[in-house]
Amino acid sequence: VRGLDDQIRAFYNTCRHRGAPVVKDAEGRCNVLRCQYHSWAYDFDGTLVQVPDEHEFPGLDRSSRGLIPVRCEIFGGLIFVNEDAGAPSLRTWMGSLADEWSMLDLDQRRIDFRWSRIVNCNWKCAVDAFQEVYHINTLHPRSVGLALDHAAAAMSLLPGGNSRMCVQLKSSDISKPATGEWSEGDLYRLTSVAHTLWPGLIVPWQTGGAKLITFWPRAANQCEISVLGLGTNWGEGPLPEDRQAANVAFDGIMMEDMLNLEGIQASLESGAFTGMMLGHQERRIYWFHEQLDRMIGAERLPPALGVKQLLSRFVETGGNKQRSGELNA
């Protein structure tokens, strides 16, 4: 909710009377947060402000029965909610990705695409599919495969399971610039850049915008994949036709991935799959699973299910200057 003080706050949607949902609409405007069951009402800071027949509750202390808050942090106009009160701050968790995102004017973007599907595959299987481009010539030969050179891809492992992938656009010339130095702007102009913010957010950047892809576990063999498109502000009126056409094309690409993922899940459940054999281009996948094991804790993992911790010495910890030098090399 956005309060009258213009601050964004988040709360569990649970009335402190008998646990009913306080609101049922996915979005909207109101003057007060009023429970749908017995009309207990809360202000936008979570304070309990009204109780019908309050005399029926002797000893009620309104100050101790407000809505229970959830951590809520904002970055570039995006709202991140975290149910773990002891987790690091969002900016700490993002690490060097925060520096890159700060250059991309996220708060100036406008939502131009929404997409969500339930997919019959484990969420980790789905995340794996979006962390490499080795598959694009086979799975997306008439779309992504035409635009990107999968053999000219650079994979960067970042702290905390985060990562970056830069893939040369076939239409671009990445020979060394006349100045002898690369800039971050060159990186986004000449390559397709994608970030993984561990665990469940993958962001492919495009000219003038980005697609925020999130992966939500629903069952052991099912997940929901959601996409939020952010683009430049097109002003008044409907979305321009070229943007609509680009969104239709992206929808088609996603559906190609969805069909493939359901087949992979069936293979995993068949008993015929004996484990992954990852190539060099696919090392972001391994890094993702290393971090997963670290977060679960080695003592909680069945020995046969853990992955060896191998890639920490390859993690990129320097700043922008170091990254530019590595790109030149």
H/E topology pattern: EEEEEEHHEHHHEEHEEEEHHH
Structural class: alpha+beta
The overall pLDDT average reads: 91
| SS field, number of helical segments | 9
Q: Spatial order of the strands in the main sheet?
A: 7-13-12-11-10-9-8
Rough outline: globular
Oligomeric state, counting identical vs distinct chains: single chain
Give the amount of beta strand, in percent: 15-25%
Helix content: 25-40%
Global Rg: 23 Å
**Major sheet details:** 7 strands, antiparallel
Written description of the protein model:
The chain is α+β, with helices and mostly antiparallel strands and 329 residues long. Helix content is 26%, strand content 25%. It contains nine helices and 13 strands. It has helices at 90-94, 96-102, 123-129, 136-139, 144-147, 184-190, 241-270, 283-296, 320-328; strands spanning 10-11, 33-34, 41-42, 48-50, 69-75, 78-82, 110-119, 148-157, 163-169, 191-197, 201-206, 209-219, 222-231. A seven-stranded antiparallel β-sheet has the order 7-13-12-11-10-9-8. Strands 1-5-6 form a three-stranded antiparallel β-sheet, with no helix packed on it. The protein has a three-stranded antiparallel β-sheet with strand order 2-3-4, with no helix packed on it. A hairpin with a 2-residue loop joins strand 11 (201-206) and strand 12 (209-219). The longest helix is centred in the C-terminal third of the chain and has 30 residues, at 241-270. The protein is globular. The chain starts with 9 loop residues before the first strand and ends with a helix. The model is unreliable at 320-329 (pLDDT under 50).
